[in-house]
Amino acid sequence: MQPGPIHKDLNALKWIIGKWGSIKAEGSFPTIESFKYCEEISFTSVGQPVLNYSSLSWHPIKLNPMHLESGFLRVKPGTNQVSFMVAHNFGLTSLEEGCFTENKLEVKSSRIERMHFAKDPKVLEIVRTYELLQDGNLELILSMSTTNTPLTQHLKVQYLKCLL
C-alpha cells in the first residue's frame, strides 16, 4: 500500500514503486573479497513528484546488518530527468542525477560528500542502473570509483517485488 497518491510526473516510474527483496545479491571490488548478501529496498510515493527510498542489507548467514541507505528520488516535472539523494550509514551522502525510460533508471553522482572521520579510501563516483527485466524482476548494477580504484562494478542485485 502506498502512503500517498502517485503524482502524475511519476506515472512513467510506476514500475519501480514498491518493496523489493533480493533473490540474488553479489558484491565485489578489487580491494575486498567478493561477497553475497540479502537486501530489501523500497520506493514509496508521498503524493509529490518524489519517491521515498530506503535500503537495508544484511549478511545471508549471520543475519547482521551490513549497509543502510535512505533518500529521495525526485523527478523534474514534465521531464524524464531525476535526482537521487542518498545518505549512507557509513558517513557518505551522494547526489546522483540522470534519467529514466519505461523500464530503466540510470543515475551518476554529481556530488559526493562525507563526514571528516569516514574511513578511507574516499568514494569519488557512483553510477547506478535499475532495470525492470522481462520476467518482472528488478536489477541493480552499481559501480563506483575510489581514490584507489577506477570506476568498477561493485554490486549486482536481482530483486523480486514483494506482495503486500
Topology:
Blueprint: E1 18-29, E2 32-36, E3 38-45, E4 50-58, E5 65-75, E6 81-88, E7 92-100, E8 104-114, E9 123-132, E10 138-146, E11 152-161
Antiparallel strand pairs: 1-2, 1-3, 1-11, 3-4, 4-5, 5-6, 6-7, 7-8, 8-9, 9-10, 10-11
InterPro entries: Calycin (IPR012674), Nitrobindin (IPR045165), THAP4-like_heme-bd (IPR014878)
Protein name: THAP4-like heme-binding domain-containing protein
Domain THAP4-like heme-binding: 10-160
Give a verbal description of the structure.
The chain is mainly beta and 164 residues long. It has a single domain, classed as Calycin beta-barrel core domain (Lipocalin), CATH 2.40.128. It is 0% helix and 62% strand. A ten-stranded antiparallel beta barrel has the order 1-3-4-5-6-7-8-9-10-11. The model has no long low-confidence stretch (mean pLDDT 95). Pfam families: THAP4_heme-bd (PF08768). InterPro entries: Calycin (IPR012674), Nitrobindin (IPR045165), THAP4-like_heme-bd (IPR014878). This is THAP4-like heme-binding domain-containing protein. Residues 10-160 form the THAP4-like heme-binding domain.
Summarize the structure.
It contains no helices and eleven strands.
Rounded mean pLDDT is: 95
Order of helices and strands: EEEEEEEEEEE
For the secondary structure, the number of strands is 11
Structural class: mainly beta
SS element count, helices: 0
CATH-assigned fold name: Lipocalin
Q: How many domains?
A: 1
The coarse overall form would be globular
Oligomer: single chain
From the coordinates shown, what is the CATH architecture?
Answer: Beta Barrel
CATH superfamily: Calycin beta-barrel core domain
Query: Could you name the CATH class?
Result: Mainly Beta
Helix content: under 10%
Strand order of the largest sheet: 1-3-4-5-6-7-8-9-10-11
State the separation between the terminal residues, measured CA to CA. 7 Å
Low-confidence stretches: none
Beta fraction of the residues?
over 45%
Gyration radius (Cα, Å) is 16 Å
Tell me the major beta sheet. Answer: 10 strands, antiparallel, barrel
Organism: Exocentrus adspersus
Pfam families: THAP4_heme-bd
InterPro entries: Calycin, Nitrobindin, THAP4-like_heme-bd
Protein name: THAP4-like heme-binding domain-containing protein
